[in-house]
Design a protein that fits this description.
Two copies of one chain form a homodimer. By secondary structure, chain A is of the alpha+beta class. Chain A is 46% helix and 20% strand. Chain A has helices at 6-15, 22-33, 42-57, 66-79, 120-133, 149-154; strands at 82-86, 92-96, 104-108, 114-117, 136-147. In chain A, the strands form two sheets. Chain A has a three-stranded mixed β-sheet. A two-stranded antiparallel sheet of chain A has the order 1-2. The termini of chain A are far apart. Strand 5 of chain A pairs antiparallel with strand 6 of chain B. Chain B binds a DNA duplex (25 and 25 nucleotides) through helix 2 and helix 4. Chains A, B: Zn(2+) binds at residues 108, 111, 148, 151.
DNA sequence: ATGGGTGCAAACTGTTTGCAATCTG
DNA sequence: CAGATTGCAAACAGTTTGCACCCAT
């Protein structure tokens, strides 16, 4: 899933007893318009949505609330539309859960710099493992934690 | 590292300009006494430490504060003694960072059940990737998110 | 028309921080 | 001794929740 029409989203939601709403469409739409590899926190998402709305309609009324943002993120993660990333401290980040999940992260524990890398073999391992356990996989993440070159050099820590 | 004496811990800390304290020894000691695969949140760790102290000395004074627990956990993660797990919502969990990092997690997004599994090939992939990026790896985690058998059956969500 | 979804504001939870006192090297 | 570390309590940030209203089905 790299592109999903509003109608397709609606079907996906309705099939599970959920409803399609303007807010949910906007959230997914924004994620779909994001460049590959870009991820947002709940608050960044919220801020962006509001900014967009202001641009389009000059109305101050088109707000989506932060609570709804959180509720929507959870919903979409549980349906497999989004993936939740736990990178550096605190802020969780979200991104589209693309079909080929060969997109993982390398995080510096000292400065929080985050690098992305791909490794197609991981998805297979994940799929196989989950199958053995009877799980239906929605996401598969390999995260490496360490100290980056410049932090090692700076001998900080 | 499956066992580390107080002296070894002290050296490890001193080498980096940190100091060895009773609190740090207790924290690491507790993790070393934990059965393989067991992990604790900061608050569980804190509660356990206090309970242990009470048992041993009947003194109510042997408390380690929650702040210190947090500070110690961060320190030990950054040194590579512990690994931080982000499993279900909120609570982060910690466990000893054993040399063979072939110990990963499978989490149900619905009921939060967590399964562990090993897959030795992952560590190699991680090591190789980190090396390319010039990182010094401290931890390597593959986490699979999905829906477990019983949740799928219950058709909840 | 039903019951799922939303917004708001208030409540929470886990985590962090300033500071004075205390210990380690 | 100097400087790292601690405990305490207060502050925070991000996230969740109750409730009344609204809207998709």
């Amino acid at each position: 899933m790299t592109f999903l029409s509003d109608q397709a989203l609606k079907d996906k939601l309705n099939n599970r007893g959920y409803r399609s709403t303007a807010q949910r469409q906007k959230v997914l739409g924004l994620f779909m318009s994001l460049p590959q590899g870009e991820h947002l926190s709940a608050e960044e998402l919220h801020a962006t949505l509001i900014k967009n709305d202001l641009g389009e309609t000059a109305s101050v009324e088109n707000h989506i609330s932060l609570s709804t943002v959180y509720r929507t993120l959870h919903l979409m993660v549980s349906i497999g539309l989004l993936r939740e990333l736990e990178l550096a401290e605190g802020h969780k980040h979200y991104e589209l859960n693309r079909p080929l999940r060969d997109h993982h992260h390398l995080v510096c524990l000292n400065c929080n710099q985050t690098l992305e890398f791909s490794e197609s073999s991981i998805a297979d391992i994940g799929e196989k493992t989950a199958q053995n356990a009877g799980y239906q996989v929605l996401d598969c993440q390999l995260t490496l934690y360490g100290i980056c070159t410049s932090c090692t050099a700076k001998n900080s820590i």
